[in-house]
Design goal:
Layout (H helix, E strand, L loop, with lengths): L1 H8 L8 H8 L4 H13 L6 H10 L3 H14 L2 H10 L6 H12 L4 H8 L10 H5 L7 H10 L3 H14 L5 H8 L4 H15 L8 H4 L10 H13 L10 H5 L7 H6 L2 H7 L31 H4 L1
Helix pairs in contact: 2-3, 3-5, 4-5, 4-6, 5-6, 5-7, 7-8, 11-13, 12-13, 13-15
């Protein structure tokens, strides 16, 4: 946000009073309104929440509305978030991402409560849980439990995607419940959550999860093959899954540990031969944190105006 603040400062001085930003929110040109909303959010001008509500109620430009919605969510209370959520319905689907990301930036647990109130019904929510649960791993299990209870397949899938990338595992008892869910996408996400988190060390898989790996109900190929890999991870004899070879041909990226569980025929279907063991150590060097942070996209036309 440092760069964003410097650029915006060229349009409105850093010592400008909130009243000046509020006047800009009522300007006739869209660039002024967009910039004012961004400044309000960057400078945490909470006193401008009423002006943002007023501006948003009249807004017809989707690009401006995106900034007003983001600012209103970040600066206002839960009632303001509800106003912003309702406003998204007047604009194309991509604006939902701006709303959900702004809610996520509020952080858990508030962001999780607002997810169930507003975000869950949005058209686009990708990346919500990765941001909302940042540095709050203690709330992962309760969030997963609420998603399962709400029968929110899309939300549970998005949560597991974020956790798989972070190498964080959901509580075993909750995963065991998910593995037996009546909802196929929840079962499927749970299966691959276990595979991806424990393929390197299956001994860490809890008994409550081991007991429900077998499943006799109808399954799509992705879930069936995932359960087959789980069975192999736990020492079971390999079995062929009908249709799995054609499904595997669609995917080209598999970790070494997963490839090691596959048959030669399955590996050939993925076109991913089992890598040879590395010879010697690969030199490494620490990665430095950058000395700057890039902002989200700037309001259209702002660079030219500056």
């Amino acid at each position: 946000m440092v760069l964003a603040t410097l650029v915006l400062a060229a349009v409105l001085p850093l010592d400008a009073k909130p009243d000046a930003v509020g006047d800009a929110l009522r300007a006739r040109d869209s660039l002024s309104r967009t910039t004012a909303a961004r400044i309000a959010a960057v400078r945490d001008l909470k006193s401008l929440a009423p002006a943002l509500r007023e501006a948003l109620a009249k807004e017809s430009d989707a690009n401006v509305a995106r900034e007003e919605i983001r600012a209103l969510v970040l600066l206002g209370g839960d009632e303001d978030v509800a106003v912003a959520a309702d406003a998204t319905k007047r604009f194309p689907a991509p604006i939902d991402e701006a709303f959900s990301n702004a809610v996520a930036r509020l952080g858990a647990p508030r962001a999780i409560d607002l997810y169930f109130a507003h975000v869950a019904s949005m058209r686009e929510i990708d990346g919500f849980f990765e941001l909302a649960l940042w540095r709050r791993p203690d709330l992962v299990t309760s969030t997963a439990s609420r998603l399962i209870g709400a029968k929110d397949e899309r939300g549970f899938v998005n949560l597991t995607v974020a956790l798989n990338e972070a190498k964080l595992a959901i509580n075993a008892d909750i995963i065991a419940i998910a593995l037996q869910s009546e909802l196929p996408k929840i079962r499927e996400a749970a299966v691959w959550h276990v595979v991806e988190n424990f393929v390197d060390d299956p001994s860490r898989i809890a008994k409550s999860v081991r007991d429900v790996v077998p499943y006799s109900g109808a399954m799509e190929i992705r879930e069936a093959f995932g359960r087959e890999l789980l069975k192999r991870m736990l020492g079971g004899e390999p079995a062929k899954i009908e249709g799995s070879l054609a499904w595997l041909e669609k995917y080209r990226s598999w970790g070494t540990a997963m490839l090691a569980l596959m048959s030669t025929e399955e590996r050939e279907a993925t076109r991913s031969p089992l890598p040879e063991a590395p010879k010697g150590k690969t030199p490494s060097a620490p990665v430095r944190r950058p000395s700057f942070t890039l902002p989200a996209e700037l309001p259209a036309g702002l660079a030219d105006a500056v």
